[in-house]
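Appendix B, Record 12. Input sequence as logged:
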Amino acid sequence: MSDYIQIGQVYVSCNARETGDEGGPRRIRIVGIVGPNRVEVETIDDAGVGTRRRHMWTDNLHASLLTLRGVARTQGYVLETEAAQ
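Logged structural output:
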């Protein structure tokens, strides 16, 4: 999974109960690659300002909202915005 993860990508929470400061779904941005299976992320608000940094396993980051069986994910984060080139 970590072969497509890049610094600057924005992911949105798959869990509808996880909300950000503005009441929408929680969003995170990749700010660093820690190792082959870990990244450093920061929670961001609607203005794109980073607040809380932490490490996260890359298996929590998904390219698609749907699983291989076509069911919507309820855990982890799904890619919202590609990294700027």
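The chain has one domain: 10-81.
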